[in-house]
């Protein structure tokens, strides 16, 4: 780990993190505020707005569990929480390695007495730490808003499990972006796969949500390893979460090794 | 003992592209000029020295440390100026220098102030707003500021105005006097001539010559443009026994290798309107050295 490089990342990256925190704050506040304990059938009202049922399902907007926890699991953690921080991850993953090589700035970093491993590891740690901070923020905010608006209604242990699973999902997605950022010297290639693969995974998940008959697609996306709705219902979650962490570990380690070994056009 | 030691280094990017079986030793305290046309492999060699590339075969080391595997340790005593220099554009120049110092584990760099003065660079502005020349100066300060023993400079004067080129030459001569080992690439012979004791000439990835600069100067082929007021004067001049490199309307280019005596005598016998030195491409300069077979 290089503290200097970490600080430099923070200096040029904190605004992006704040922007995502702000967007997520808005969604969390609005969506939790929409919950009505007396009227759990939100779907019917949304359907009244002439959204097709399938489209809403694609975004995970289905009330399986009428409690506040179930509501949050569907409407916040069905699509928004997996989707939005993913955009942060993709941008940052690309910025932290591939973009520096592509612009030539990496030469300035590596001409110092620092190993490539240390540089790549610093960038990986930065991505993981900022992501963890973002999810932690989201968790605390969700707890606070729920406690203030609907005291005692939230199943706190289930909500915490949902967020741990969410962090694992995002670490795995970040692993994908980071790996390709380390692999490619051109931002174009890095983004094509580092953003492309997570996006395809998300689209598959949405397709799967709206047409459950396409069961085989389950095996085509890592989003299948995370379902907030299932966690809210108390279904087993440790194994898929551990699998996501393992995927993340392999991809981050792979990225560091690849960056250490490859040719750099600097 | 050689400080920079390149042995059989090969990195192929296809036929004629890359470097092939390159062997080169540079002893401590030498300023070595690395010359060659664009695409001849200068930058590829330098990228190996910095440990950015994996060789297909062969090896290179600096001060006994392998350039690729022991890069981090070796970079403590190495200064580098990239050929295509890039910075964190959003930073200020002074911030960038501080960043590099901290990356080196230094609080401040001993020579930063002196170098900024030498190149008359004000680093307080945003790098994004700096001109090409200012960025080049910033890169030079970054390469020298931690007072490294060994310097690898890729086209160090590109973008510098003549005054700053002179400041650079003075810096190199001062560093040479302090016993630094320097490898600098260039396609400007004048710059190499003023600073280096030995020159390696790279052609299509092969080291085609290793020359002492003194020898090169002696055998260097220079071209002079002689101009006339009248066609008759020119015709008379053409009758002289000289190596005519070009014949234009009222101008004749004369190539001279070694002594200028025959040429100056011929000049004195004719009414000459003007005399100019023709700026030559690197290849032309070495025609003399290769005996007219540079290709």
Q: Could you characterize what this model shows?
A:
The complex is a heterodimer of chains A (266) and B (295). The mean pLDDT of chain A is 90. Chain A has one domain (3-261). Chain A starts with a helix and ends in a 5-residue tail after the last helix. Chain A has helices at residues 3-34, 42-48, 53-58, 68-75, 80-96, 98-103, 106-110, 116-149, 156-183, 187-210, 228-232, 238-261. Chain A is built from twelve helices and no strands. With 266 residues, chain A is mainly alpha-helical. Chain A is globular. Chain B is α/β, with parallel strands linked by helices. Chain B has two domains: 2-216, 3-Layer(aba) Sandwich (Rossmann fold); 219-290, Malonyl-CoA ACP transacylase, ACP-binding (Alpha-Beta Plaits), CATH 3.30.70. Chain B has eleven helices and 14 strands. In chain B, the strands form three sheets. Chain B has a six-stranded mixed sheet with strand order 6-7-8-3-9-10, sandwiched between helices. In chain B, strands 2-1-4-5 form a four-stranded antiparallel sheet.
The number of strands of chain A is 0
What is the helix/strand order of chain B? EEEHEEHEHHHEHEHEEHEHEEHEH
Second CATH tier, the architecture of the largest domain in chain B: 3-Layer(aba) Sandwich
- Number of helical stretches of at least 4 residues of chain B: 11
Instruction: Round the mean pLDDT of chain A to the nearest integer and report it.
Output: 90
Could you say which overall geometry of chain B the principal axes of the C-alpha atoms support? globular
The oligomeric status of these chains comes to: heterodimer
Arithmetic mean pLDDT of chain B: 89
- Percent range for β-strand residues of chain B: 25-35%
Which structural class should the secondary elements of chain B be placed in?
alpha/beta
Number of domains of chain A: 1
Biggest beta sheet attributes of chain A: none
